[in-house]
Amino acid sequence: MERQTRAFDLAQVRAETPGCTEVLHFNNAGAALMPQPVVEAVSAHLQREARHGGYEAAEEAREALAHVYEAVAMLLGCQPSEVALVENATRAWDMAFYAIPFAPGDRILTGMAEYASNYLAFLQMTRRTGVRVEVIPDDEYGQISLSALRNAIDEHVRVIALTHVPTNNGLVNPAAEVGRIAREAGVLYLLDATQSVGQMPLDVRALGCDILAGTGRKFLRGPRGTGFLYVRQEVLAQLEPPLIDLHAASWTAPDQYALRPDARRFECWEASIANRLGLGAAIDYFLQWDQQRLWRRVRDLAYLLRTRLTPLPGVIVHDRGVVQGGIVTFTVEGWEAEMIRQALRRQHINVSAVSQQAALLDMQAHGLQTLVRASVHYYNSEEEVERFARALEHLLAAGPTSSLS
């Protein structure tokens, strides 16, 4: 079913985002400002729980909850039966990764910019099963090298695991091209879309991924404590979740159980119904607009920000890739990233400080300990970009000691 989209209206979007009157929010890669319909969806259900009871409120919201699965499916171009709702993207990713039946000698192929939580899972799996983790180098543009990936594949490769958009870089990895390589080789493909979903249109069929994990709190503008997992129907039978309960499986005999036939085998029975409804509201809000139009706006704002930051004395922008998204990362000579973050926060400007621990391989390779991460979104304005650049310029002119006052 195709959905009618509305013309983008920045004034309307900002009016529907209460936080726009409070802060200049360039921390969308951390947690974006929620629009009012999301806030109302969450708070309305919490009120129903308080007045009617938690179980009873969930029963009343049955149709609305079913719609959340449909919304995720529409967002990703899949079937609702291929969707699981999980409390965050890391746990969604974990539930799928630890379900893969690894054997000694299996190889995991990944990229230089893989996220720390994912890589820690790789390392744990090497200790448990004797699999090998192999990092595909970057190409000359800083993205995963497709030629090196293709050359690395043999009969021992069990999975290609890729972070679509790194946490520490404006880079957008060529996920669809990786998907084509995975399909040609018949290799399982696990995509971490935590930082890409809500920034850009995603279609799992075009991406060629078998598994995709995403979050609600970042560019989708949903509540914290929400995530989802897509698992292609054809690979479900290969994957037994590492944890199950009476929702994920049925207790069929004293010594037997049967897993659900759909992706909800990766879910847990207990969850925040209010947050799930908020996630559905966030996806509905995103899908009302032309996604390509929003993606162009995010890229344009990020380009404008990079253009304003690059000439500032001592500022180095570190983003790479053929395609760059809404994450803008930079360092400032003589300043710690956390000092910049705190000084801007006192001016009601939000950014993040990213440490080497978040993406160890990538940041070590480029000699980086910390970065300032300023991440824009479609509801940000060109005036905010200019205001941010002026604030940083004035801060740098005053010197690091001024940030302590």
From TrEMBL:
Q: Which cofactor does it need?
A: pyridoxal 5'-phosphate
Superkingdom of the source species: Bacteria
Checking Pfam families in the record gives:
Aminotran_5
* Annotated GO MF terms: transaminase activity
Q: Provide the alphabetized UniProt keywords.
A: Aminotransferase, Pyridoxal phosphate, Transferase
* InterPro entries given in the database record: Aminotrans_V_dom (IPR000192), Aminotrans_V_PyrdxlP_BS (IPR020578), PyrdxlP-dep_Trfase (IPR015424), PyrdxlP-dep_Trfase_major (IPR015421), PyrdxlP-dep_Trfase_small (IPR015422)
Residues in Aminotransferase class V domain copies: 26-388
Q: Which PROSITE patterns match?
A: AA_TRANSFER_CLASS_5
**Which family, according to UniProt?**
Belongs to the class-V pyridoxal-phosphate-dependent aminotransferase family.
Q: Which PANTHER family match?
A: BLR4730 PROTEIN, CYSTEINE DESULFURASE
- This chain belongs to the protein called Aminotransferase class V
The species this protein was found in = Thermogemmatispora aurantia
Instruction: Cite the source lineage.
Output: Bacteria, Bacillati, Chloroflexota, Ktedonobacteria, Thermogemmatisporales
